[in-house]
Automatic annotation (TrEMBL):
<dbReference type="Pfam" id="PF01219">
    <property type="entry name" value="DAGK_prokar"/>
</dbReference>
<keyword id="KW-0444">Lipid biosynthesis</keyword>
<dbReference type="InterPro" id="IPR033718">
    <property type="entry name" value="DAGK_prok"/>
</dbReference>
<dbReference type="GO" id="GO:0004143">
    <property type="term" value="F:ATP-dependent diacylglycerol kinase activity"/>
</dbReference>
<feature type="transmembrane region" description="Helical">
    <location>
        <begin position="105"/>
        <end position="126"/>
    </location>
</feature>
<keyword id="KW-1003">Cell membrane</keyword>
<keyword id="KW-0997">Cell inner membrane</keyword>
<comment type="function">
    <text>Catalyzes the ATP-dependent phosphorylation of sn-l,2-diacylglycerol (DAG) to phosphatidic acid. Involved in the recycling of diacylglycerol produced as a by-product during membrane-derived oligosaccharide (MDO) biosynthesis.</text>
</comment>
<comment type="similarity">
    <text>Belongs to the bacterial diacylglycerol kinase family.</text>
</comment>
<keyword id="KW-1208">Phospholipid metabolism</keyword>
<keyword id="KW-0443">Lipid metabolism</keyword>
<keyword id="KW-0418">Kinase</keyword>
<keyword id="KW-0594">Phospholipid biosynthesis</keyword>
<keyword id="KW-0460">Magnesium</keyword>
<keyword id="KW-0808">Transferase</keyword>
<keyword id="KW-0479">Metal-binding</keyword>
<keyword id="KW-0547">Nucleotide-binding</keyword>
Amino acid sequence: MRVRKSRCRPQRGFDLLRLWRATINTRNGLAFAIRSEQAVREELLALALSVPLAWLVGASVMRRVELVAAVAFVLVVEILNTAIEKLADRLTTDHDPQIGRVKDMGSAAVGVALLMSGAFWLFAIAERIGAF
């Protein structure tokens, strides 16, 4: 009778290599987004500013984390929107109404994320000044 090695055993060396490659891909994607999109650069600046501002505005540690996370969420949606736009532009440079609608939906997602983030910040400011 032949004994087979279990394939369920974790292979730590390969896991670390996969993690390293994923980290490099993340860095490359973020660097490309920063180079190619003004909106990504602006939202990174907003994220950097949100950290000290959250300490001034947030009434609790949890509220401060929520405020920074709301701005980070806008950045995430913007990066996804950028990916959609770059992919659509790669498919065709001609004007295509369906691709235009897809790009519009990506922009709408960014707009909704911005509104959500703005609402979080407005509520936190109102909470800080004692309106609630």
